[in-house]
Amino acid sequence: MLSSIHIHASTDDKAARILYTVYMDNTTNAGSPVMDRLVRTPFIWSLYLLLGLFSFMLSMIGPMVPYLRDEFAMDYTLAGLHQSAFAVGMVTMGLFGSPIIKRFGIAMSIWGGMADMLVGLLVMVLARGPVMTLGGIFIMSLGGTVALAAIQTAMANSPAAHRGTIIMEANVSASALMMAVPLVLLAGSHSILGWRIVFPAMLLSVSAVAVFGIPATMKHQKTRDEKADAGSGRLGAAYWRMWVVVFFGVSVEWAISFWCMTYLLELPGNSRELAAAGTVLLGLSLVAGRFIASRIGHRISEERMFLAILAIVLVGFPLYWLRANVATTFIGLALCGLGSANFYPLGLSLALGHAPGNAARASSLVPVASGSAIGLAPFLLGRLADATNMRFALWYIPIGVVIIFALILFDRSLRSRTHITAAAESR
Asked: Is pLDDT at 421 greater than 90 in this prediction?
């Protein structure tokens, strides 16, 4: 391919540029012997850890619900609104986050957002009723989403050859810290703090990262043209296709994880211990899936990897759904977790790759997709399960996977046709 570029360059510069574009598109994140090695600077490590802390805050709400119900005598509907409050905050700030990043820059948006997240968590732990707990979660979500969008903008502006790997590794960190939630709450249950231990845990964690993270982000900011990094202009149809992929990917992931324990309780014996073990297995498979993807991401294109993980979920779902016995059910659940773990990071990377020069707006709008999915999927599946049963409701999982499959193939076909047409017109 490289030799063909040199040959055409001497006869037709326009054709050479087109062939070079095709070459670069086809080799993005696919590995190259001349690709520079990824150097993980303190700035990159701070992005990884801060994304992990955001994920900790997001994932702690569900496990905290039993504690909130006991203390404030909430019914299931009111308790469930706490996850929805976080999702509403994500959607709200996702729509308005881009101007904030453009106005204040990456560093201020990240650390201001994290500070606001801590303020919201403080409001929550000081609460004496559901109004304050809901308000605290909403404030947390507003600040956290600004920080998330700024983190994603920074990752979007990393070298294209490493962007996918950075996003994957950041999400490994996110999965690992999500698994710390039950351990922190367990420690709180054995102390006078109870579920409120989450505030000192988060305060200490953010402060520890800030020690090296603030100098690293400020140094990074001085080396970048942040106005250019934020970008401007309209987002094209290709970006919006990947935005829809993110929505369906996150909704499928949450359809699997949110109702996992409820579905496993219907295994023979109705064992809560078995159901809890299955939930732990799902968490481990999510971490394993993201770790594996981060290791092989530079060797295979993102689209091919996406198609592969969709196939893994389609293989695992029947084993999980049939609930024939504990062993096959757990194998199916592990396969579903292994595949769905990468729906969000791959969808994010593809979306950002389709929005060159418009990183801030593209990054800010992705939480609108994920927040909408988090807010809608568990609720709508629950309503469908009330009207039918959970086994019927879980058919959404393969339906969502097929929709993503179709969107990825359509996008791939469309871009191939565009490249072929451009090459033909240049002759």
From this structure: no
